[in-house]
């Protein structure tokens, strides 16, 4: 049995020969990437989906209108829930259900996505017991389909400026929900436009003329039977987007719409019938939901980049173009150093982003457990970490996936490659759940606090312990025996620490000169972001290091170490100016890093296909003609094209009429 | 009369106040960007298009299926030609007609695009007089609609490997055009799928069993009356792409399809009825068409980035989010340093790319004139220059436009922003007309030749003269009076020269150690690309310098100089490691560059809107709700959304049935 488990009879010979070079067991590597339990579950559920034709794409979504996409995925999601118990081992296991959804539905959205991912969790977290009694069962049985309506046309990031109002009317014991301006329209919530009949609406609570800030309210928006919008409610779809076009992101406006007082979610804050307001026990409570989404996002982004890498690397082993030596025959494009340099660093990033996702989810679980005990100290650490990771990871994923797409040449540009759609989905993450630039500044704020503590010899949290350590003057890269990468990781640490202290000093200097704290912050905002990025990239490198150390199997560890070392070299070169500025690194050391990087590209080359096969994406999940497991690309591109909507008739009637 | 000419009554006050701060005349700046004659023509044709409702979008293309897009743009292009004489001053002026097309049709393609841009020019350049007589008039009068079919499913960049054959049959005086494999299918040609009835087909010429390489053949593919594919011909659309979906890029296969011998385009190479082959007078002849497209591309890419900058900067002056000082009110997002740092460098690039486009088109014209006289020495220079520019400019445009889109937050992700579509169009340029990675290596080859000459004290061409100059040891940045930027430009030159010589030395060393030239090249491919990029970025900076110097009006020159200095600082920081490695720059100088960059962001801030207004894009052309000249963004986003295809009915029938 070959080590690469993706080999099947009838495959493109080129790929089989590549796969026979595997130095490690791809299923064992999958267990490292996904955890062994989940890796097994993914394989098993994929087999079951294969047999259930009701869960198969009726045609490629790229050939569909938005109407058709919505219908297709509504059909799928209903079928998915109908068969859930037969397919997954544990329907309450979020990760397992997610992977079922990747196979059956994909990433363009479906009418119940926000219902399950945000509406029900928000009910669970924010409704009191009586409210749960009332709404949770109907929601679970899909009588009541809900969305979560927070963002408005005029405001996203700055929640305090949301304009929708919920004014308490003591006389009738009701809230009056109102949209005072066009900019106050709820805008963007998923599944709001057409699918949902209820929404949890964020609105500024007003009692006796006093504003209490935004709180959440359960509002029915459409009739349960006719599905028509209720009186006083304006609702619709916000129109086509870059991706996610099977989701009906919507707008929502209220004309003095009345709801019972008890429709305010009252687990934490409360309003009684006399209009007396009780504030939540502590302010950070709302926080954890967003942190949760961010912690899940990191791993998903890694998965998206992994999918794009899989497509590009497999295709680069099928595609031959040009000769390295004239007359010696065309070579696989992955044999070019330039192609390796384009793709392998993205592959390494996909790996480390998945590892970081796992670490962050574990930390989140720990924070949750702590919070149950009333302990919230780690929450600020987690918030800072996820803010930085969310921003750095989504940015690098977007840019990396574009590299993967372009590495596929012209065919990467076709929707048949599958990359344009997942790229569109992935880059949405740069904006939602906290805009990246704002997130970096939130981490920077934490880092500046950490500097203050460090100067007093104290650490603000485990993740910034390294700020207490002294700086080395010179790097040991290239001065220690070949194969030792400790100095590389130390360089990440050095660079991050230097920039963090440097910008802290600069801020202090500006304030010493009489500038206000806010203006100084504004003048150093870009440098603060740089500090946040460098801190995060150090975290990522260290996370990769921890993962490699934790692997027992020698062959897996060796393959992983090659990727890790490539990552160290590549990322270090990308930020090397920071280490050159204070002469921590010398020119010969930079050359050493470069040469070692080029060497590693060659080392990784024979394992490339096995490293991507280890993600174990099914063809059904990848939805890519270029990235097919069997490597039969060209004949299937032709087959795919023939199914395109424009080929339904040989001659377009319009061509005869107008031209 | 205010200096900013875009002010109109009824505009959003925020924008009017911004525009009143203009320090220069926006129409004068437009004359610098477009040339005064073209700037005037653009304004005049836009007014005429405003009055011609047949040239207006019937609805936003984002709401259309591909079928509808094709029909819409077929309608438009017919109307455009019908009214051409009333709208443009000179229908033979490519630039004027292009801008008409930007207003009336946009960038998603139309059924006659390749017909005019490639088919007719190819006929003009490659058909002999008798052939022109036969085909040119029918083509100009649209009896015959043609495309240019070169790329195949299996081969793009490596033209020598194209598989389609044209075998001469002496007995019948015909060529037999044949597609021997699936990978030999013609794939990608624009307008091939549905619209064209003729194609100029690139095929490997075979006479008496001997292959003569690829030549061009005129092939009728569809019946002129029924528009049905002819017997022996398989043709169709290749399916949806990231963008350009109003273009029917197609596939085309031949089953031993016969055409008369005289359908080979015979201006240069010839085959007589006895099968005797005459080769073209010189090999570089086919070259110039591709160089032409590339030289036009540079300016267009600058225009795309300019459009994205216009959208993002205008929107950033309408959008308010967050407070710099608590309680002082929400600020325009362009007031944040982070937003300025995200957008202004893109704006500066848009300017310099447009300037470079103009320089390159002028050089192309000079080369053409020279070629008429049989002089081809400059052609290699031009080819090298356009190869580098094409690659660097398309890459930076793609990344820059993504920054512009993300700078618009969530609404940037909506198709209403207009950026996703033009981004999709622009990034296509990374691949077509020569894949970027390959293009960089072509420039690198030229640079390595130039080093050899330089070592003998000779210059290979004007653009590499600087290789003959000695290297300075230390930069004068920050050591000369403030406001002098000569040392910055010198740093670009220094960095490029150092990397070019460094990689040349490394190549030589590998060969000295016995490595073959080809393998050494392959081992240094990434470093060679770096050399090509640095050379090109030096060219761009120098081009910006030349432009600023050439401006007479003091106020225009001052505004332009600020952008130029920002460009110098920003780009230099992006490549600063190369200058730190050999201690050409010191840490304090890098800090100086940073501080100066942040200072310039503040300087440019009040002029930002006038700098984008100077592009004089009409709303019709921008097709962006966020980028509207009048700044009335929110009410129009709402209006736009209501027109979305999913809002045709309040309730989707499918929602009632499936959920």
UniProtKB/TrEMBL annotation, chains A, B:
Signal peptide: none
Functional pathway: Lipid metabolism; peroxisomal fatty acid beta-oxidation
Cofactor: FAD
Similarity comment: family membership: Belongs to the acyl-CoA oxidase family.
One Gene Ontology MF term: ATP binding
Transmembrane segments: none
The UniProt record lists the keyword Zinc: no
Keywords: ATP-binding, FAD, Fatty acid metabolism, Flavoprotein, Lipid metabolism, Nucleotide-binding, Oxidoreductase, Peroxisome
Flavoprotein listed as a keyword: yes
Localization, UniProt: Peroxisome
Acyl-CoA oxidase C-alpha1 domain ranges (all copies): 287-448
Acyl-CoA oxidase C-terminal domain span: 489-652
Pfam family, one: ACOX
Active site: 433 (proton acceptor)
Protein name in UniProt: Acyl-coenzyme A oxidase
Biological process, per Gene Ontology: ascaroside biosynthetic process; fatty acid beta-oxidation using acyl-CoA oxidase; lipid homeostasis
UniProt domain Acyl-coenzyme A oxidase N-terminal: residue ranges: 25-145
Annotated GO CC locations: peroxisome
PANTHER family: ELECTRON TRANSPORT OXIDOREDUCTASE, PEROXISOMAL ACYL-COENZYME A OXIDASE 1
Classification via InterPro entries: ACOX_C_alpha1 (IPR055060), Acyl-CoA_ox_N (IPR029320), Acyl-CoA_Oxase/DH_mid-dom_sf (IPR046373), Acyl-CoA_oxidase (IPR012258), Acyl-CoA_oxidase_C (IPR002655), AcylCo_DH-like_C (IPR036250), AcylCoA_DH/ox_N_sf (IPR037069), AcylCoA_DH/oxidase_NM_dom_sf (IPR009100)
Coarse class of the protein's main subcellular location: other
Binding, FAD: 151, 190
């Amino acid at each position: 049995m070959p080590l690469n488990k993706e080999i099947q009879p009838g495959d493109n010979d080129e790929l089989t020969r590549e796969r026979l070079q595997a130095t490690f067991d791809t299923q064992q590597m999958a267990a490292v990437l996904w955890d062994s339990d989940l890796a097994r579950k993914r394989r098993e559920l994929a087999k079951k989906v294969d047999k259930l034709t009701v869960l198969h794409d009726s045609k490629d979504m790229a050939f569909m209108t938005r109407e058709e996409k919505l219908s297709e995925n509504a059909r799928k999601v209903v079928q998915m829930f109908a068969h859930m118990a037969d397919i997954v081992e544990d329907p309450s296991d979020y990760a397992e259900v997610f992977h079922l959804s990747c196979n059956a539905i994909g990433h363009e959205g479906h009418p119940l996505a926000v219902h399950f991912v945000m509406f029900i969790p928000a009910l669970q977290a924010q409704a009191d017991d009586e409210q749960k009694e009332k709404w949770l069962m109907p929601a679970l049985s899909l009588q009541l389909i809900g969305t979560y309506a927070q963002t408005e046309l005029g405001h996203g990031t700055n929640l305090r400026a949301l304009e929708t109002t919920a004014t308490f009317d003591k006389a009738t014991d009701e809230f009056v929900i109102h949209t005072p301006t066009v900019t106050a329209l709820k805008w963007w919530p998923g599944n709001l436009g057409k699918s949902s009949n209820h929404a949890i609406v964020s609105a500024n609570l007003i009692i006796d003329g006093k504003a209490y800030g935004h709180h959440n309210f359960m509002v029915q928006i459409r009739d349960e039977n006719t599905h028509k919008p209720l009186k006083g409610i304006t609702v619709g779809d916000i129109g086509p987007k870059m991706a996610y076009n099977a989701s009906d992101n919507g707008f929502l406006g209220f004309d003095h719409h009345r709801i019972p007082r008890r429709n305010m979610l009252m687990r934490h804050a409360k309003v009684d019938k006399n209009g007396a307001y009780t504030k939540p026990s502590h302010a950070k409570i709302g926080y954890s939901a967003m942190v949760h989404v961010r912690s899940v996002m990191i791993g998903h982004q890694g998965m998206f980049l992994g999918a794009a890498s899989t497509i590009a690397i497999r295709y680069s082993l099928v595609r031959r173009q040009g000769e390295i030596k004239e007359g010696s025959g065309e070579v696989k494009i992955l044999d070019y150093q330039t192609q390796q340099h384009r793709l392998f660093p993205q592959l390494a990033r996909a790996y480390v982003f998945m590892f970081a996702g796992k670490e962050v989810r574990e930390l989140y679980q720990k924070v949750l457990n702590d919070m149950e005990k009333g302990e919230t100290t780690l929450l600020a650490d987690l918030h800072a970490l996820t803010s930085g990771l969310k921003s750095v990871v989504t940015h690098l994923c977007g840019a990396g996936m574009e590299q993967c797409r372009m590495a596929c040449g012209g065919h990467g540009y076709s929707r048949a490659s599958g990359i344009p759609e997942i790229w569109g989905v992935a880059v949405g993450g740069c904006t939602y759940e906290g805009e990246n630039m704002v997130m970096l500044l939130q981490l920077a704020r934490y880092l500046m606090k950490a500097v203050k503590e460090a100067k007093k010899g104290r650490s603000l949290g485990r993740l910034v312990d390294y700020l207490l350590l002294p700086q080395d003057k010179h790097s040991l890269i290239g001065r220690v025996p070949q194969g030792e990468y400790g100095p590389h990781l130390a360089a990440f640490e050095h660079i991050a620490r230097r920039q963090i202290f440097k910008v802290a000093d600069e801020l202090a200097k500006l304030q010493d000169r009489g500038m206000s704290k806010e203006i100084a912050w504004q003048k150093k905002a870009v440098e603060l972001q740089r500090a946040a990025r460098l801190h995060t990239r150090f975290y990522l490198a260290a996370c990769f290091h921890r993962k490699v150390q934790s692997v027992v199997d020698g062959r897996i560890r060796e393959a992983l170490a090659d990727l890790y070392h490539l990552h160290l070299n590549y990322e270090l070169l990308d930020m090397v100016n920071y280490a050159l500025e204070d002469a921590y690194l010398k020119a010969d050391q930079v050359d050493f890093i470069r040469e070692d990087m080029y060497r590693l590209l060659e080392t990784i080359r024979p394992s490339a296909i096995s490293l991507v096969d280890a993600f174990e994406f099914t063809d059904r999940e990848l939805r890519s003609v270029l990235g097919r497991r069997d490597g039969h690309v060209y004949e299937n591109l032709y087959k795919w094209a023939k199914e395109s909507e424009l080929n339904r008739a040989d001659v377009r009637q319009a061509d005869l009429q107008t031209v």
